[in-house]
């Protein structure tokens, strides 16, 4: 996934083993426009086939049906099964991994190879790993429910978890489920865990999309007046078109991340396309901010202080909350937002760990997964 102020071309390379196709770690490479990552070229496993150590599966996603942007109601997930799965009747805990914006894989960590090695060495326990992407036509869904793009939170909580518990030998209880993710997925993991402690008992968030009180204004979405003006002009052009023509051209936004963010956090299906509220308009040649709409955008990656009050009881039910980030992150608002998140939870008496390390948005993710995230879940999740 590209840092939020740039985009990213993800290249997937697939190594075939004698028993299963592998899903290698994604290697981020900077580009000017975020591209949708290419799919891992392996055949989906049919329901009648024996499952392998690494499985690419297409599942029904009823939570995404009836959206306004043409997202399909079927999604591809990747499921890793531990070495003993095929030779035992054991049930296993499950860790759900949410990739970042424009991404659909685990950065810096190869499945099944790296996971098999960690299990063989005894550093982590045998568990199932599910990679469930939130990539969309706009690059990302932010894993939230939206009347415009579909209910992506429900997709993870209901569709994916439900599929796993009815298809595989999972331990179908919150105590045996963890959720994690990187960047947009790091935000999604925190948000979903906060809202569903009855489904997930622990969360580990890597380089998450989090704002402190000034994070939105400092983010690239609003840091430059030129981009704001481009979006205002884009909305003016769409408003002049018939609805059908505006629907066809609403994806031609001046910047894709802001379009996806607006759909996620300020959706408005009742207005003329592009079906979301933008916080700026032009009045007499001047850009004017609507503070009510601005608050909607701010509460997307932000709003932590209010959420701590609203969801304190839920957060206290979680067995572990960890946020980590690289101090050299290209998005300077991520370290600030992560520290602010930790401060707000700590002030409210909610146990949380915030860890920083020397690294940027991408280059240490594989190491963090192997040495920190997976051992964290091994220590907290309930095994059979």
Textual characterization of the structure:
This protein is α/β, with parallel strands linked by helices. The chain has two domains: 7-212 and 302-380, Alpha/Beta hydrolase fold, catalytic domain (Rossmann fold, 3-Layer(aba) Sandwich), CATH 3.40.50.1820; 222-300, no CATH class. The protein has twelve helices and 14 strands. The protein has helices at 113-121, 152-167, 184-195, 215-218, 225-239, 243-249, 256-265, 291-301, 304-310, 312-317, 333-347, 365-380, and strands spanning 7-11, 27-31, 54-60, 74-80, 94-98, 128-132, 145-146, 150-151, 177-182, 202-206, 280-283, 286-289, 320-326, 353-357. An eight-stranded mixed sheet has the order 3-4-6-5-9-10-13-14, with helices on both faces. A two-stranded antiparallel sheet has the order 1-2. A hairpin with a 3-residue loop joins β7 and β8. α7 crosses α8 (291-301). The two termini are 35 Å apart.
Give me the secondary-structure topology:
Elements: E1 7-11, E2 27-31, E3 54-60, E4 74-80, E5 94-98, H1 113-121, E6 128-132, E7 145-146, E8 150-151, H2 152-167, E9 177-182, H3 184-195, E10 202-206, H4 215-218, H5 225-239, H6 243-249, H7 256-265, E11 280-283, E12 286-289, H8 291-301, H9 304-310, H10 312-317, E13 320-326, H11 333-347, E14 353-357, H12 365-380
Parallel strand pairs: 5-6, 5-9, 9-10, 10-13, 13-14
Antiparallel strand pairs: 1-2, 3-4, 4-6, 7-8, 11-12
